[in-house]
Design a protein that fits this description.
Length: about 450
C-alpha cells in the first residue's frame, strides 16, 4: 500500500469508531486538468455545451492568479465518488480524505440529501453519462447547431425547477374533475314532487378540459418539456436531463455552509485524533486546514464575502460545544442552510466573526450599513432563495399558443436584471416557438411587460 493509502485506511477506521455513517467512498487520484474539468462541469462526464468552456477558462485564470485551488471534488451517492488532485501533497490529500468522509456522513444523514437520493437513485455519475450519450446521439442525428440551441434554452432555465416537487411527475389531468353528485335529502325529494315542479334537465356540456397550467407552474423545465407545442422527443429529453441534474445539485447548493462546515469539523477532529500520523505530516495538514477555514482575504484584509468553510466550521464547533454531538446530529439531519443560519447564528457568534452588512457604490465606495443580526442572516441567505434565481411561473397559455410568465416579485423580494431577463426570454421563445410574455414590475413597483 502507498503511504496515502495507509493513512486513508487508518482515517476510515477511526471515522467508523467515532460514529460516522456513510456509503462507501470510491477515491481516485486525478491530474490537475481533469480536476478543473470536473469542477467546472460539475460532474466527471456531462452534456457538452460552450458555457462550460467559458467557465473552464475563467477557472484557469483564477488559478493562475493564485485563487480557487481545487483540493478535491466529491459526489454524494451510493457509492460516493471522490477525486483528489495528484498535485496535492501527502498531507493535503490526507486532510482531503478526512474531509470527504465528513461530506459522505452528511450526505447520508441529511434529510434533504436523502430525499433527492431516493428520487433519483444514488448513481448520478452514471445518469449524467447516459444523458451525455443521448445528447451526443442527438448531435449525430440533427447536428451540433440545433442541439446547442436547445441546450442554450435549457441551461438558461436550469435554476427554474420546483425543489419541493418530485423528480418524476405525472402530466396535468386532461379534464376538470367532475363535481360529485349532491345527495338528495327527504326535503329535496318532497319539493321535487310538488305539483308543477319537475326534475331540471342536466345541461349537456360534456367533459370540461382543464386549463394549462391549472395553477402557477414554477418548474419551467418540466412544463416546457411536457407542454411546448412543437418540441421533438430529443428536445424534450434534453430539458428533462437538465432538470434531473439541477435537482441533484440542489441539496449541495442549499446545504453548502452546513455541509462544508461539517466536513471541516470532522477533518480537523479526525486528524487531531489520528495518532498514527507522523508529526510533520499532521502539522502540514493542520496548516492546510487553517488556510481552508480562514475568515479573511489575502494579506489579512477584511473579506467582503462569507467563507462557507469558516462560517460552517465555527457554527458546528459552537453547537457541539454547547449542546453535544447527539444534538448536532439532529440538526445535521433536519436542517438546510436556512434553518441552520437562522437558528444557530446568534448575536455572540456574529460579533465574534465580525459580520456586517455593507453597500458598495462608485460615489461612496464600500461602507458598513448595519450589524443587525436579522439583516446579517438574510444577507447570507438571500442568494440561496429559489436556487439564487428570480421566482418565475408559467401562468397561462393563450388560445394563440403564446406563453405567459409571471415574476412573483412580492415574495421574491428582488428585482430582475432586465437585460438578462430579455435574453432568457428569447431562449424560451425559441423552444416554445410561440410568443412569450413576462409580467414583472420596475423599481417603482409599476407593472412592466417583457415580450419575445
Amino acid at each position: 500500500m502507498s503511504e496515502l493509502e495507509q493513512y486513508a485506511a487508518g482515517i476510515e477506521e477511526l471515522a467508523k469508531r467515532l460514529g460516522l455513517d456513510y456509503y462507501n467512498v470510491d477515491f481516485e487520484i486525478a491530474p490537475a486538468s481533469l480536476m478543473t474539468e470536473i469542477a467546472v462541469y460539475g460532474l466527471p462526464i456531462r452534456m457538452p455545451h460552450w458555457s462550460f468552456g467559458v467557465r473552464y477558462i475563467h477557472q484557469l485564470v483564477r488559478q493562475s492568479m493564485g485563487h480557487s485551488k481545487i483540493f478535491e471534488v466529491m459526489f454524494p451517492g451510493d457509492p460516493c465518488r471522490a477525486f483528489l488532485m495528484d498535485g496535492n501533497s501527502i498531507a493535503e490529500n490526507t486532510l482531503v480524505t478526512a474531509h470527504v468522509l465528513g461530506h459522505a456522513d452528511f450526505s447520508k444523514g441529511n434529510e434533504l440529501f436523502a430525499r433527492f437520493h431516493e428520487m433519483a437513485g444514488g448513481n448520478i455519475v452514471e445518469h449524467a453519462a447516459a444523458h451525455a450519450q443521448r445528447i451526443q446521439q442527438a448531435i449525430d442525428a440533427v447536428g451540433l447547431e440545433k442541439v446547442e440551441a436547445v441546450l442554450d434554452a435549457a441551461l438558461a432555465l436550469e435554476s427554474h425547477v420546483d425543489v419541493d416537487g418530485d423528480l418524476h411527475r405525472a402530466p396535468y389531468p386532461e379534464f376538470v374533475p367532475e363535481k360529485a353528485t349532491v345527495t338528495q335529502t327527504a326535503f329535496h325529494r318532497r319539493f321535487r314532487d310538488l305539483p308543477g315542479e319537475a326534475e331540471p334537465a342536466a345541461p349537456d356540456v360534456g367533459r370540461i378540459r382543464a386549463a394549462v397550467p391549472p395553477h402557477p407552474e414554477f418548474d419551467l423545465l418540466w412544463f416546457i418539456a411536457h407542454y411546448a407545442p412543437e418540441l421533438e422527443q430529443w428536445e424534450r429529453d434534453i430539458f428533462l436531463a437538465v432538470r434531473a441534474e439541477s435537482l441533484y445539485f440542489y441539496p449541495v447548493f442549499a446545504c453548502q455552509i452546513m455541509n462544508e462546515g461539517w466536513a471541516s469539523y470532522w477533518h480537523a477532529r479526525l486528524l487531531r485524533e489520528a495518532e498514527f500520523l507522523p508529526q510533520p505530516l499532521y502539522l502540514a495538514a493542520i496548516k492546510a486546514h487553517s488556510d481552508v477555514v480562514r475568515p479573511y482575504a489575502a494579506g489579512q484584509e477584511t473579506a467582503l464575502a462569507i467563507n462557507p468553510y469558516h462560517l460552517g466550521f465555527t457554527l458546528w464547533e459552537h453547537l457541539i460545544e454547547r449542546h453535544g454531538m447527539p444534538r448536532a446530529r439532529e440538526v445535521m439531519r433536519d436542517e438546510d442552510d436556512f434553518g441552520f443560519i437562522r437558528n444557530f447564528l446568534d448575536r455572540e457568534l456574529a460579533e465574534k466573526l465580525d459580520l456586517f452588512v455593507y453597500e458598495a457604490s462608485a460615489a461612496d465606495g464600500i461602507k458598513v450599513v448595519n450589524r443587525d443580526l436579522n439583516a446579517i442572516r438574510e444577507a447570507i441567505l438571500s442568494p440561496k432563495f429559489n436556487y439564487g434565481a428570480p421566482r418565475v411561473a408559467a401562468t397561462d397559455v393563450n388560445t394563440d399558443g403564446s406563453l405567459v410568465l409571471a415574476h412573483e416579485h412580492a415574495t421574491d423580494g428582488r428585482g430582475l436584471d432586465l437585460g438578462r431577463a430579455k435574453r432568457v426570454l428569447e431562449y424560451t421563445r425559441r423552444v416554445w416557438r410561440r410568443p412569450v410574455r413576462l409580467l414583472t414590475v420596475n423599481d417603482r413597483g409599476e407593472p412592466v411587460e417583457l415580450t419575445a
